[in-house]
# Entry
Amino acid sequence: MIFRERRGIPLDRTVTYQIEAKEEGLEILAFLRSKGFSRHILTQMKADKHAILLNGEKAYGRTILTEGDCLRIRILETETSEKIIPVKINLHILYEDEDLLVINKPAGMPIHPSQGNYENTLANGAAFYAMEKGEAFVYRCVNRLDRDTTGALILAKNPLSAAVLSSQMRNRQIRRTYLAIVEGIPPKKGTISAPIARVNGSTIEREINFQTGETAVTHFERLAVKNGYSLMELHLETGRTHQIRVHMKYLGYPLPGDYLYHPNYDRIRRQPLHSYQLEFTHPLTGEGLLFTASLPEDFVCAF
# Structure
């Protein structure tokens, strides 16, 4: 069982566990590993004399747990994102607690600062949002979206939630549902399994390459057809760069408005791809979560 404590300024995160019968006999170190504490977090905890309290007393990684014990863990925030410039950007927040922030990202917004994009990114807006609340800010983006892809995106607010959510991503435990508009009428259902690689000489563009590409699997279902275009539901089994855009082009049904893979702007001025739903387990409480991001107007009008 876990209880959550809320701090005014989350310079660190304190978590309290009530030890259950099935956990009796475990060393604290093994218990914390089972809760998703990364090696990096555990190493940093060694420098904090008050990192581990068991029933109000200082304890150590090798201390044995007993049913009914109260284990208090403090995770210090040792990183900063002070180089990210806070910029007032309206954020459509779907959910927030002390461990994560779920945002419905608009089109035209990069998620990270880069050359030519220093003050117009999601990171800038998140930095300003934290500054307004008087909170410490470290930018940890869990599921990445392309600049013109819209929809649900997760930011982790502390090292532990970041470690657990990153593990969920690696283990394909975050179910990501996308909606896309494509040209033509694909099969009703199917799976695309085709490896994706970077195009030689390009830092951005990707292609199907069965010799050098990395495994990429996309599941799709056609939901509706209108005027020669199809509304698709897609689920990613892997998370390669531009995966849906490249896979649908490979299948013969590209996304219109895609400046890289199909620059046909008759329907829409950017690729109509939307992160519609995210389903995952809360990184600390274990609660099942499901978030749905409303469709942007240009997407709706394009179909």
Summary: Confidence is low (pLDDT under 50) at residues 1-8. The helical segments are 28-34, 39-45, 122-132, 159-170, 243-251, 297-302.
